[in-house]
Records
---
Amino acid sequence: MISKKMMQLGKKRSAIRETFEYSKIREQQIGKENVFDFSIGNPSVPAPDCITQTLIDLLKNSNPVELHGYTSAQGDLASRKAVADFIDKTQHAYLDPNYIYLTVGASAALSATFHAISVPDDEIILFAPYFAEYSVFIDSAGAKLVSCPSHSDTLLPDFDALEKLITAHTKAVVVNSPNNPTGVVYPSKTIQQLADILVRKEKEFDSQIFIVSDEPYRELVYDNTVVPYIPAYYTDTIVCYSFSKIWSLPGERIGYVALTPNMRSIDDIYAAICGAGRYLGYICAPSMYQKLMPLCMGATSDIKVYEQNRNILYDALTQYGFSCVHPDGAFYLFVKSPESDANIFCQKAKEFELLLVASDSFGYPGFVRISYCKTTQQILNSLPAFEKLAKSYNLK
Ligand code: PLP
């Protein structure tokens, strides 16, 4: 007898992975250049030079036993200090390295956080549309996912709905800005409004309600957009960060959890994060990549490529008649499906070899996500197919 639940989870791929696997088959059939795969958020630009050079240097010049050895369960102190120093430099905010926990990417940061803060019957609120894997992480922590709608014109949270959804069981509200799947960045006013609501609700229910700020796209913003630093607005914030996207290293798995200083019961919460890391088998994030932190913090891959891709795709698609909120960050366009069932629209797009992801699994049906982390040439090559798709719906 094995776990049916795990077996089913393993057998059922996410809509993104399903489309990504289909793209591999289709590429073999008709050639890579003829398939326009916009499914997965795999960075398309190389890691910054600092990363490559430092890795070479570490491999050549450090003691290999130390380089590849276990670090402290919560990560090397020097690496945690590097995170705190960087936040000090860029956000002018204090972080204590003793309340930072290095993880295997944001996925582990989120899983450990949900495990650490939840007891059965706790509720975790997500603003739909949301990153689909949250549902798996929340379920595994024994908590309940509560979906709060966003306004369809701005894709910003509907705070009237939020007010009604917060109960005595609410343990956290997840904020993901810049957002996957919409590319929207929450402005300062939105974060302030959210903080005000939560402070009021904490008092009303005599509870602690966390903002879990999931920030894999923190630095991926365009046109000088400013991403508000949420701990500056709300003390009960737990930041879950990832280097996957900004360092173009998603396969190497490195990120962190950081607790906001002055958070109530911070010692217990940090102990619970460490305990959850242990419980889940996540202790000691990849040690070579931890060692990059003091040496390469602040290095970024060339995000101008994404900005250029966004501009080309957004301008072309809206010109062809598609409608889409203008995204200020991440590398996704969230486009309204011309028919009510976005899955049918995705099937139609496949006829033009355009592989898009229906928004149903993001908890917000009726849209598709287009992941534009491709080469700019691939984006340009896909435009005639998008134009034909638009014409097939008489969008103009
Ligand atoms: N959160 C969001 C919003 C994401 O888009 C992703 C990955 O695409 C993750 C978390 C997981 O990131 P990581 O690769 O660091 O586990």
Note: Residues 41, 105-107, 131, 176, 180, 214, 216, 242, 244, 250, 255 surround pyridoxal-5'-phosphate (CB under 6 Å).
---
Amino acid sequence: MTKKVLKYSVINLCRFMLAITFILSGFVKAVDPLGTQYKIGDYLEALHIASYIPDILTLISSILLSSLEFCLGVFMLFAIRRHIVSKIIFVFISIMTVITLWIAIANPVSDCGCFGDAIKLTNWETFIKNIILMAAAVTVWKYPLCMVRFISKSNQWIVINYTIIFIVFISGYSLYDLPQFDFRPYHIGANIKKGMEIPPGAKQPKFENTFIMEKNGVRKEFKLDNYPDSTWKFIDSKTVQISEGYIPPIHDFSIQKVGSGEDITNNILGDKGYTFLLISPHLETADDSQLDQINQISEYCTDNGYKFYCLTASTGKAINRWQSITGAEYSFCNTDETTLKTIIRSNPGLLLIKAGTIIRKWSHNTLPDEKQFSKPLEHSEIGTMPKDSVTGKILKIILWYVLPLMVLTLADRTWAWSRWVKNKEKSNKIYQLLKRKKMRKKIVAGNWKMNMNLQDGIALAKELNDTFTAEKPNCGVIICTPFIHLASIAQFLNQDIIGLGAENCADKVKGAYTGEVSAEMVKSTGAQYVVLGHSERRSYYNETPAILKEKVQLALDNNLKVIFCIGESKEEREANRQNEVVKAELDGSVFDLSAEDFAKIVIAYEPIWAIGTGLTATSDQAEEIHAYIRNCIADKYGKQVAEDTTILYGGSCKASNAPELFAKPDIDGGLIGGASLKAADFKGIIDAWKK
Ligand code: PGA
């Protein structure tokens, strides 16, 4: 595994760990907004500020907290807004770690409530969990961009809005109805009596006795195992619990009749018939909008012989008030406030139990109506346990939330992938074009040879100058003229558009070489190029590879760029020796150059049999040998230099055959003899690059 893969794996593992924790933690809180509100209340109580904060504020905080956690988790899962989300998660966990350290040390609440009632951790376990999450949060915060996106940036808003709507709806619905998933020991189907039982063999609480004894005025503490002899006088003893025993899920459930104080817990739980329990931790704050319905249910119970009690933690005064405003005729009993809040998250809420088992639970907003009470419970649907509602709810969540997001992700990823493939193809093409354009210059160079007197030459150069100033050519243009023209043409030629070059230079630096023109002299005219190695010079003036090597070196020394010609004769072509010939010409004159100097060379392949004869190499023939030449350069100087070298074709190149020749990948332009002597002909060839 490479280092990069390992890094990405670790970061994404941290991301999923955080995402799942936040989603779970947010969701279990959201399905029980009142439970979360009570937990916030516990914290405020521990800080002694509960009485200053109104309930509505703690309820809003509960919904905001659960929504925030859930959204952060989902955003992290999808890698949405990676920078900001990872920062918020880091800050969130930092705050939580500090709080949980306080809880672990000071023990103000017994359960932090991180996962609502779904998963209970001890305070130290919670702190350790937060330390692990903190490490993960630091990792993703440092490398947010390593989190692989599950959804493109342009579609993130869909997930963001959908998630916010979903979790706020879940909170609101759970608040209106009851927690959609009930993790408490009083869930539907639970038998309260069973929940209170201590199974045989369960861990017993352990106690330790200490005895304080005195002898000769000295007091000392003893345990049972070192209890002293009778010379010591017993003074006092202490009993301390040293370990907790098994605590049953329901351990504080009891019902006392208001007034008599009689404990009727066992009567109610042992009753084989139906019992309705109207649960209201505080009658003072209970919702009284459904009073009539509650009274109707109570009457229905009287008519059908079912029991109906109101369990509350409120005192007699509040009960009297409730009785007077509602006309309640049912009995009131007292139960612990926290127990009542745990039983049902609604004030008031209604519970139907049979033989101690909870059969139905209703919030005051969703109480059963008259129709449902038309028959005795024994024959009615509400008298039986509802069908497995948990699976149904999970399915609904999958159908309404998970599935749409999965479909969206799938569509988005397919779209992103096809776009990526297209872009890659496009950028590859652009890259190739740019590379070709940038690295390898396209050139059309004219070689006037021994034509044109000074005036005609100047006139032609002027015409070309005007033509290409008016209409910029699509390639580099060079004119290589006899020596006598150079200085005059250099005066007016716009060399940004048309480069100027000589057709030859001497193989000596300077001195007594009558009739010769040195590279330095060429340069001094204002020219930038020189043609060397032309076949006419090789054959008519016996320029050997060694002489040409000298010339090339001198040209380069004088900052002239060289158009170096190579090419085979007719006989050599017929003997299929063209590759060997061009290779030898390169080896003989330019392949000793440094790569840096070689970069200043333009190669012109000119089959001698095609020069001025009207015969042209076919584009395939030309391409074949151009490719071979490029290979030779690659072998000598490497692929990059080969790719960057301009290789021109020369030999009866005209406007009519130039497009086909120039279309070949290894032909980068032409060295033009006859057709460069008329502006229109020359332009026709140059225009081939526009096609
Ligand atoms: P040509 O000459 O175009 O007249 O064939 C080419 C050359 O010699 O450079």
Note: The longest strand covers residues 233-243.
